[in-house]
Amino acid sequence: MHSKRTADFLLNLHDASMFLSPAAFQEWALNEIQRLIDFDFAIWGAGDGKRRQLHTATILHQADSLFETWETVKHEDPFANLVIDNTGKTWSSCHLDGFHDSRAYREHWGRYEAKQLLSTMEVDPRTELHIFVTLARDALQQRFSASDTQLKNLISGHLFLAARHNDMHNLRSLQAPAAFIDSRGLLNAALPEFIALVVDEWGRKAKQQLPEAVNRSLWESGNYRNHRIALNAERINHRLLVRAGIFPEVRLSARELEVAWAYVKGNTHKEVARMLAISPTTVRTHVSRIYQKLDISDKAELALWLNGSGGLM
C-alpha cells in the first residue's frame, strides 16, 4: 500500500535517531518528509495545548518569529482548536469552512502565506505535552490530498517515537545523570538516575517538572547549586541539556553547629565567644573552617545551608 520511498524513509528515520544530535535531528527529519509530501514550510513543536502555550519549536523554511503573531489569536484559531481537540489523527485546514475568513488567518497564518495546513498532534503520556508536526503550503491550487493525509498520519507516530529515542540515546552517551528540559522546566526526556536525584531533592513533582526557581537559574545562568546537588545546563536549540552531580554529605561538629547558628543570628565574633564561653579567635577559626567545609564565602550562604537539612541540630 505504501511505497518503497516511505519504507526507506522510516528505516532512515530510526537510523538517524541513533547518530544525529538533538539539534540536528528534527530539522533533518522535516527535510526528509519534504521528499514524500510537498510543502513550503514546516513546524515541529511541543507545548501545553489546552493553555495554548508553545514550549519548543523547530521551524523549517520560515521565520523563527512565526509564533509571535499567533499569541494574540491563539485562543480563536479554528485550526488549532480542531487539532488540539482531536489528537491522534491528521487534519487539514481544508476540513474547516471559513478558515481563510477567520481572524487567526487574517492576522497570523495569512501573513506567512500559509494557505493550507496539514497537522498531526499527540499527547506525550510521560510529560502530558502536546507534540505536533504541521506542514504548510502557500497556494491553494494543489491541495493536500487524501493520500498526503494518510501518509502524514502513518509517519507522524514514527517521528515522535524516533525523537524520543534520539533524546534518550544522546543522554545515555553522556555517561552522567542528565535530562532535556524546556523553557518551563518540564523534563522532556531524562535518565532514571537524573530523575532519582531530583525526586530525592525536591519530591515527586520534580519527576515531571523542576521547581520554578531552579529552572529560572538554569536558563539565566546555566547552573544551579545548593549544598547537595549541582546542575549545569547547555542550550540545545529551544531546550536545555542539564547534567546533574551530587556533593558528598558534609557534616559539622556539634560545636561548629553552635558557632554557626549563633553567628548567622547577627552576633559578632566577640558576642558568639561570650555566649559559648570561648575566645573570639576560636570563633574566627571555627567560622573559617565551616566556610571551607561547606565551600561557601559569606554569612548569607551559611544561613541558607543551616536552614536546609544539613544544619539540623
Automatic annotation (TrEMBL):
Coiled coil: none annotated. It comes from the Bacteria. SUPFAM superfamilies: C-terminal effector domain of the bipartite response regulators. InterPro entries: Sig_transdc_resp-reg_C-effctor, Tscrpt_reg_LuxR_C, WH-like_DNA-bd_sf. The keyword Ribosomal protein does not apply. Gene3D superfamilies: Winged helix-like DNA-binding domain superfamily/Winged helix DNA-binding domain (1.10.10.10). Keywords: DNA-binding, Transcription, Transcription regulation. CDD domains: LuxR_C_like. The keyword DNA-binding applies. Residues 245-310 form the HTH luxR-type domain. One of its GO terms (molecular function) is DNA binding. PROSITE patterns: HTH_LUXR_2. This is Response regulator transcription factor. GO terms for biological process: regulation of DNA-templated transcription.
